[in-house]
Amino acid sequence: MTKQFPAPWMNPAYSLNLMWQTTRMTLDAQAIIALRLAKIATGGAAGQAEASLMVNEKLRALGESQMIALRALGTPDGGAARITRLYQRKLAANRKRLTKA
């Protein structure tokens, strides 16, 4: 018989999955940081554009994550899973853009 939990976040599997996703996202973020720094270090217009884009993207993502958290007020996880997915999508888009040949 499967144990029923009153809320999804009380299930240890939910917490472990969220923890795994967050850890993976952290490792992905480090790789993106390295790619961005390499592009910025080349200087010139491309480096300046990357630095500007980076700041704009971070501010936009912050606003989006705050809106998710506000909408999730009173929910058991406070929107943590949705915010994690938001940042995973942002990281994937940056990796794709930065690794284009």
Topology:
Elements: H1 12-41, H2 44-71, H3 80-98
Task: Describe the protein in words.
This protein has 101 residues and is mainly α. It has a domain at 49-101. 76% of the residues lie in helices and 0% in strands. The chain is elongated and about 60 Å long. The protein starts with 11 loop residues before the first helix and ends with a helix. The model has no long low-confidence stretch (mean pLDDT 89).
What are the key terms here?
single chain, 101 residues, elongated, mainly alpha
Task: Summarize the model shown.
The chain is mainly α. The chain contains three helices and no strands. It has helices at 12-41, 44-71, 80-98.
What's the helix count?
3
Mean pLDDT: 89
- Cα(first) to Cα(last) distance is 53 Å
DSSP strand count: 0
Structural class of the secondary structure composition?
mainly alpha
Shape estimate: elongated
- Uncertain segments are none
